Amino acid sequence: MSRLKQLRAYVDARLDALDQKTRRSAYVHLYGASLAATLIAEKRGQNAELASMAAMLHDLAAYETGSYSDHAHRGAALARTVLDELNLTTPEEANMICSAIYNHDSKDRIDSPFDEVLKDADVMHHTLNDTSKPVKEKEKARFQALRKEFGLPELPETE
Q1: CB within 10 Å: which end of the chain, N or C, has fewer?
Q2: Per-domain residue ranges for the chain?
Q3: How many CB atoms lie within 10 A of CB 141?
């Protein structure tokens, strides 16, 4: 079984313990962001498997606690624990994954190319999962840049 499949099975077991509404939201977002991370990483020449793994873990702490307060930093700590427990990655790979999770909520800042994959995958899923919702202010610039990167027309500004 691949590392990603092993990690997904582990995450699935943790999500299955959540209430139905939270569980549904978590599955949709974590798997959606994971797919987006794979696509973006492939396009940018980054490690797609590790990017997908980072996306599978990036909001797990928030879903389990029900709190988004400092969720990126708490998520990185949880990811480190999970990766250590499962022994699926080298220390360097775990550092990459945890750095991406730690920085993923800092959408106004540019970090390492690998960290940027998770930020953009998160934005891609937030904005494309339900196009009837307005794009969050902190995600607008990234969303427009992603649209350009993928050859999509720029969206008009809305108020």
Answers
A1: C
A2: 3-149
A3: 13
Pick the CATH number of 3-149 from 3.40.50.1820, 1.10.3210.10, 3.40.50.1360, 3.40.50.1400: 1.10.3210.10
The answer to whether 7 and 86 are in contact (CB under 8 A) is yes
Helix, strand and coil content of the chain, in percent to the nearest 5, comes to: 70, 0, 30
CA 13 to chain centre: 18
Check if the beta carbon of residue 107 is closer than 8 Å to that of residue 119. yes
Task: Give the pair of three-digit tokens for residue 87.
Answer: 């022994």
Q: Would you list the DSSP string of 37-62? A: HHHHHHHHTS-HHHHHHHHHHTTHHH
Tens digits of pLDDT across the chain (159 residues): 899 999 999 999 999 999 999 999 999 999 999 999 999 999 999 999 999 999 999 999 999 999 989 999 999 999 999 999 999 999 999 999 999 999 999 999 999 999 999 999 999 999 999 888 999 999 999 999 999 999 999 887 755
Question: What's the pTM value of the predicted model, to 2 decimals?
Answer: 0.95
